[in-house]
Structure formats: structure tokens, C-alpha cells
From TrEMBL:
<dbReference type="GO" id="GO:0016887">
    <property type="term" value="F:ATP hydrolysis activity"/>
</dbReference>
<dbReference type="Pfam" id="PF10609">
    <property type="entry name" value="ParA"/>
</dbReference>
<keyword id="KW-0067">ATP-binding</keyword>
<dbReference type="InterPro" id="IPR050625">
    <property type="entry name" value="ParA/MinD_ATPase"/>
</dbReference>
<keyword id="KW-0969">Cilium</keyword>
<dbReference type="GO" id="GO:0009898">
    <property type="term" value="C:cytoplasmic side of plasma membrane"/>
</dbReference>
<keyword id="KW-0966">Cell projection</keyword>
<keyword id="KW-0547">Nucleotide-binding</keyword>
<dbReference type="InterPro" id="IPR033875">
    <property type="entry name" value="FlhG"/>
</dbReference>
<protein>
    <submittedName>
        <fullName>Flagellar biosynthesis protein FlhG</fullName>
    </submittedName>
</protein>
<dbReference type="GO" id="GO:0005524">
    <property type="term" value="F:ATP binding"/>
</dbReference>
<dbReference type="InterPro" id="IPR033756">
    <property type="entry name" value="YlxH/NBP35"/>
</dbReference>
<dbReference type="GO" id="GO:0051782">
    <property type="term" value="P:negative regulation of cell division"/>
</dbReference>
<dbReference type="InterPro" id="IPR027417">
    <property type="entry name" value="P-loop_NTPase"/>
</dbReference>
<dbReference type="InterPro" id="IPR025501">
    <property type="entry name" value="MinD_FleN"/>
</dbReference>
<dbReference type="GO" id="GO:0005829">
    <property type="term" value="C:cytosol"/>
</dbReference>
<keyword id="KW-0282">Flagellum</keyword>
Length: 293
């Protein structure tokens, strides 16, 4: 194990031996690509870490993994490495900006979800080692939810569906909600509208989607937040820095902070949405047997 991994393990294990964390696993998904999932995941992770929550981000958009690029991070390992070369999860996780712990995606594997049973077992075993370590684990997923990636999403405690106000993005987001609802009616879903021109547009987009889910699926979907279109997001991407740290007082950062208050408030309010062990149980069930929730 590298020095970095040993340090990380020590940091993570030290304080929590007596009070293990009740981890909430949140998948960030969308129907359409390029709607802002990775930027949201990275900055939300940093914001939660800044609030004192121990937070990890897993880049599960394997093949198109880019969290390390967004953060300008040189990583010494990644999820593909962990699966292919049987490396420890402690070895591949890096401490990124703002104290966010990062598992980069890596390349060379087109689809993490087409793993052999042995590799799936490896993956679940490594994930199980994180029991009690984090307050939040965020999964930054690829677009769409029709592959096996679906299993990771369905195993989570909660799903955030990101959409922009574009009609194509909204219809794709609805399709994802429907898909998830049919497989896991009890899975908590919330909508994040990104890149809205005005707060009114953001609210209306979210409410329309919410209404459609209620009317056609009888599903209650929470409207988490609307983040504005903000030129500082692209500027931060170009600088390979998270916008929350590079431009903390701009509209996107301010809206994200309000959004995170809600996310954190929810964790405190809903302390009983299933344990980490239940998450691991579902993940194994899905990955190894194709069953589950
Ligand atoms: N709130 C925003 N305001 C302006 N541009 C944004 C915003 N969110 C995302 N973007 C732009 O969209 C691009 C794609 O975002 P990304 O997070 O990579 O999407 P995804 O992970 O869904 O594919 C970013 O590089 C950025 O330029
Ligand atoms: Mg992405």
C-alpha cells in the first residue's frame, strides 16, 4: 500500500472507530448527457466536505471518466485499476480539493458493468470496506440508465436526476424516472434543474417534471434545486478547478450552497433510509445475481 493510501486510511479510520458514520449513497444521473452531472457531483462533494461531512465521490462514468480532469488531479490509481489489478480501495482513493475523497474512473475498460463475476465480487468487496467511513458517497454516473449501471443506481439510498430546461433533456429525465420507478418504486428521487436562465424557468422545469411523475407514475419526486446558467462554471472547467472554490460567490456557487443545505437537512431528517450494509447487500444481489430491490 502506498504512503498516500496509508495516510488516507489512517485519517479515515482514526476518528470514526467509536462513532461509525451512517453513510448515504447518492447516485447522480441524467437521461441526456452533458447536462452538468459531473460538475454538480464534484462541487456538491466539495461543499458537503466543507460542511464537515466526510464525503467520497466515485466516478462511475467509466469510459468517459472525467472527474480527475475537472479537478486537475493526477491520480495514482482508479476504479478500473482496482477491478482489473485487484488493488485496494484505499490505494486508489485520493484526497482532492476541499477534502473531498475521490475514486477516479480510469480508462481501458469500456464498460465497468460488463465485468466477470470475479471482478464484480472484487468491486463489491472493496466497496464493503468503506462501511462506517463516510457520511456521503456520491456516484457520478454516465448518461442514461438502461445498462447495468442501473444496478448501482437502484442500490443507492437516493438518486438525483439532473436535467436542463431543454425539452429533450426533460423528456429523457422523465424516461429515467419512469425506468427507476418501475424497478424500485420506493427509491427516493429528486430533480436538479441545471443551467436555467432564470429562477422562474428552473422552478417551472422542475415542477413540470414533478407533475408528470405524479400524474403518470403516481410518484412523488422532490424538487431539489435549480442551479443557474453561470459562465463561471465553464471558466472553472477550463482552469481545472471546482467552481465552488474558484468562484465561491457567483450565482452557481450560491445556489449550490442552498441546495446542499437541503441535501444535508434531508440526511438529518431521514435517518432511517437503509444502512450501508443494505446498500452493499443490494449491490451484490444486483451485480452477482441480477436481482435485488
Ligand atoms: N450551471 C452551469 N452553467 C454554465 N455551464 C454549465 C453549468 N453546468 C454545466 N455547464 C457546462 O456543461 C458542461 C458539461 O458538464 P458536465 O458536468 O461534464 O456534464 P455531464 O457530466 O452531465 O456530462 C461543462 O463543461 C460546463 O461547460
Ligand atoms: Mg459526466
Amino acid at each position: 500500500m502506498s504512503d498516500q493510501a496509508q495516510n488516507l486510511r489512517r485519517v479515515l479510520e482514526h476518528k470514526d472507530r467509536e462513532s461509525p458514520k451512517k453513510t448515504r449513497v447518492i447516485s447522480v444521473v441524467s437521461g441526456k448527457g452533458g447536462v452538468g452531472k459531473s460538475n454538480f457531483s464534484v462541487n456538491a462533494g466539495i461543499g458537503l466536505a466543507q460542511k464537515g461531512y466526510k464525503t467520497a465521490l466515485f466516478d462511475l462514468d467509466i469510459g468517459m471518466a472525467n472527474v480527475d480532469i475537472l479537478l486537475g488531479l493526477q491520480t495514482s490509481g482508479d476504479i478500473v485499476d482496482m477491478i482489473e489489478n485487484d488493488r485496494s480501495i484505499w490505494d486508489i482513493m485520493e484526497t482532492g480539493p476541499g477534502g473531498l475523497h475521490i475514486a477516479a474512473g480510469g480508462s481501458g475498460l469500456n464498460d465497468i458493468f460488463e465485468m466477470t463475476p470475479e471482478k464484480k465480487e472484487r468491486f463489491s468487496r472493496q466497496m464493503a470496506m468503506l462501511d462506517g467511513v463516510f457520511d456521503y458517497i456520491l456516484f457520478d454516473m454516465g448518461a442514461g440508465a438502461d445498462r447495468d449501471s442501473f444496478h448501482f443506481i437502484l442500490s443507492s439510498h437516493e438518486v438525483i436526476i439532473v436535467t436542463t430546461p431543454e425539452p429533450t433533456s426533460i423528456t429523457d429525465a422523465y424516461a429515467v424516472i419512469k425506468h427507476l420507478h418501475l424497478r424500485a418504486p420506493d427509491l427516493g428521487c429528486s430533480i436538479l434543474v441545471n443551467r436555467s436562465e432564470t429562477s422562474k424557468e428552473g422552478k417551472q422545469t422542475g415542477e413540470n417534471l414533478q407533475r408528470a411523475a405524479k400524474r403518470f407514475l403516481k410518484k412523488d419526486v422532490d424538487l431539489l434545486a435549480a442551479l443557474p446558467q453561470d459562465k463561471h462554471v465553464l471558466q472553472a472547467v477550463k482552469k481545472q478547478e471546482p467552481f465552488l472554490l474558484a468562484f465561491p460567490y457567483t450565482p452557481a456557487s450560491k445556489a449550490l450552497q442552498t441546495c446542499l443545505e437541503r441535501v444535508a437537512g434531508r440526511k438529518n431528517a431521514e435517518s432511517d433510509t437503509g444502512s450501508y450494509k443494505q446498500f452493499i447487500g443490494r449491490l451484490k444481489e444486483f451485480l452477482l445475481k441480477g436481482g435485488g430491490r
